[in-house]
Amino acid sequence: MFTTNPFASVGHALAPGFLKWFLLVMVLAVIAGTLYDIIHKGSAAYFFGSWRKSSSSRPPQSGNEPGSNFASIAAQTLVVDVLSSGEFCNPKRRIAHLLTMYGFIAYIVTTAMMVFGNHPSGGVVPMLWWIGALMIFVGGWWFWLFIRVDVAAEGNSRWRIVHADLFVLSLVISVTLGLAWAWMGGGVTGLFWLYIAATAVLFGSVPWSKFAHMFFKPAAAFEKRVSHANGTAQNLPTQTRDDPEQQKRHSMELLQDAPMDMGLGIKREAPRHY
Would the pTM count as exceeding 0.85? Predict the structure, then answer.
């Protein structure tokens, strides 16, 4: 079963090229939705505006201009922030994110290969499709049921749904239906059409979900590293209170002269006092 191409079981029962056209429409929906998200929310304008502001306001430096180490910064962003998800301090959330991310890549690529290419049962591509889908299933449901902040720290119900949950919930539901459909032997069944509908919601809801964040976050991480390299850091406070200008940024007088580790006792235990 794990080496069976489930999409091969529906080609003869559907209109010619249905799955190929469906995938193409989903790709166009992601592109159009991302462009709409950029324009509507002003993400690109904010990013480039911040970049220009950072570049124009950076202090004079000697010998180490950011233009000379862009490649190094880009490599660090790729390895640390993108490939290893270094932004996550919580190890469980990081593992769940990596499972979902790499599973999603394998799942999308192998789906396209099986639909557009000639990958009969018995090959490695169907097996990678199963592995990718199962990685999403484990990482997605693990995050949804146990790791979400409003569940783990605030005590809200696991089944409480808000607008921000649209992407992750549509993803895990789509993949779960796909696995169930393939497990049952494929074919044009009710599970197949539910799988198609859930997938359409996943890729068609890009303007209203967090789907486009996967494209924004690498650019934001790169810009953040460049800002730190050229000394501007987007005007954020540095990790020291020795600078009088940084001390003035705190609204509470108590914190103006406080040590950096003051107040970190809250991190000694998980916030589970709901």
Answer: no
What does the alpha-carbon distance between residue 162 and residue 164 come to, in Å, rounded to a whole number?
Answer: 6
Give the C-alpha distances (Å, rounded to integers) separating 173 from 21, 133, 138, 156, 180: 22, 11, 12, 20, 10
d(CA 207, CA 198): 16
DSSP 8-state code for residue 209? S
| Rounded distance between C-alpha atoms, residue 191 and residue 256, angstroms | 60
CB of 3 closer than 8 Å to CB of 123? yes
Contact 129, 107 (CB under 8 A): yes
Q: Round to whole Å and give the CA distance between 77 and 226.
A: 10
In whole angstroms, give the CA distance from residue 259 to residue 67: 35
C-alpha 254 chain-centroid distance:
38
Distance CA 20, CA 26 (A): 10
Residue 89: exposed, middle, or buried by beta-carbon count in 10 A (0-12, 13-18, 19+)? exposed
For residues 226 and 58, the answer to whether their CB atoms sit within 8 Å is no
Full pLDDT tens readout for the chain, 274 residues: 777 888 888 877 888 889 999 999 999 999 999 888 888 776 666 666 766 666 665 554 544 444 447 788 788 888 888 888 877 778 888 999 999 999 999 999 999 999 988 666 667 899 999 999 999 999 999 998 888 877 766 777 878 888 888 999 999 999 999 999 999 988 899 999 999 999 999 999 988 888 877 777 777 777 777 777 766 654 555 555 556 666 666 666 666 666 655 665 655 666 555 5
Residue 116 · residue 260 · CB < 8 Å: no
Task: Find the Cα–Cα–Cα–Cα dihedral 129, 132, 134, 140, rounded to 10°.
Answer: -140
